[in-house]
What we know:
The chain has 18 helices and 25 strands. Helix 9 (317-329) packs across helix 10 and helix 10 (341-358) packs parallel to helix 11. The longest helix has 18 residues, at 341-358.
Amino acid sequence: MRTPLVLLNARLLDPATGGFLPDTALAASGGRITALGDDSHIRALADASTTVVDLKGAVVTPGLVDGHIHPVSGAELTHGLDLSGCTDLEQVRAALAAGVRGLAPGAWLGGWGLDPNAFGDRPVETAPFDSVLDGVPATLLLFDAHSMLASRRALELAGVDGPRTFDQASAEVVCDAASRPTGLLLEDAACELVERVAPQPTREERRDRLAAALRRMAAAGLTGGHAMDANGDSLAFYAELDEAGQLPLRLRVAPWCQPGTDADAVRALIAQQGAGGRLWRTEGVKIFMDGTIDNGTAWLEQPDRNGESTHAFWPDPEVYTRIVGEFHRAGVPTATHAIGDAAVRHVLDAVEKAQTSSGPGSRVRHRVEHIETVPDDTLRRFAELGVIASVQPTHCCDFTRADHTDNWSRRLGEERASRAWRCRDLWDSGATVVLGSDWPIAPYPPLGVMGGARHRRPSRDLTQAPHGPEQALTALQALQGMTVNAARAAGEEHLAGRIALGHRADLTVLADDPLTVAATELPDLPVLLTAVDGGVTHRDASL
Length: 543
């Protein structure tokens, strides 16, 4: 049998124990690890066609997997002005002014990553930018990708001149007391009113942006991701790149199930399960139970301090419960976006009802995504029900503050803000905790995600105090959150997440041990090599 890949002079890190294996080399064939041993033994397995890499003592971990990512929509949404570094309105205005100067007459301006904290105590609306965007159609995506600001000209072109009603209960064209739009659009249904009249890139441009984004992810050390959407051409793009040998990540894709999904659509989602190619597969369904706290569209057990975040994304939450039961009986795992405490509780109740009605032996690994604030009595239920806790710690790092002066914390108040991203409590309660970025909401480099889970400080200023340091994960837990736990969440612990014979040859090679590198320095640790299915997807020039 051919041996396409041999790695020598390596330190092979076992995330299950935190120790190094006694072996110093490995061989891969057929996409699996086929041999472990010393350098001389493994070198003998190579032939003229083998890629042999001397790692010079570098550390090999199982491939790092992002537990929540949006590759296709991320590649689209991160095109245009990057506003993520703007911390106040003056910086936003300056960035917009620079963007407008480069526009052709009548052209649209797009921006992304806008943090509502830039508005301070002012409402999030387009009024502060009216003079800069006078006559310019513009869409400014807020960092959570659940809302955007549309300029007055963009609203005019879209024919949006007042409130609307949507199937998505938390979607809204935000209006003032005179029913005039403020420019703020909440949730996809409202945003699409403007997006559908804005110029769109060609299909080829979209595919090329996706391919470039995936290559950058591989260079950052990612070997896989749990993709939480399959909208538009997503699956076709994955298939095309896979067939061309240009898909550098292994992707597990969960299509959306939105309010209004009828029985035929549910059956179609069930029938779609398992479809895919060599490196991608449709598995699971993504559902939304609420929106976001920053926009007042989460579902909280008590209203936020603005009187908002009072209801679910589904107009009738019991319809969601019924649909989860249907997926459960069909063996389809669900991944539900649930940020607020009421949303998380309802998801757990729905899973418990599905399990009870299906009887013993019907375990399906359902997931809750985000879990930004929950009370004590919710924690234990994840382990009891076998529900995966999928969290994104860098959201806490970069969009909230230890002193609770940020928009998220102000909306919640001290008691609930003190329960921010309870990663350690979830872990200690026995839950399987999976880490991810939710890119494009936060940066995708996995070492940054792992570092943030450990230090919980703003990545732009690591001298600031951590938000909830008691919720920090250990270095080993952070690594497990992107290896063994990611494999378990996908039901693949028998073939992924470990460096072991017969396991997938999805590997990340780092310049040093991620368990001993300081949390604040981890994002800068060089990624020397990435391999997926036994093929090299990134190789540093030093090797």
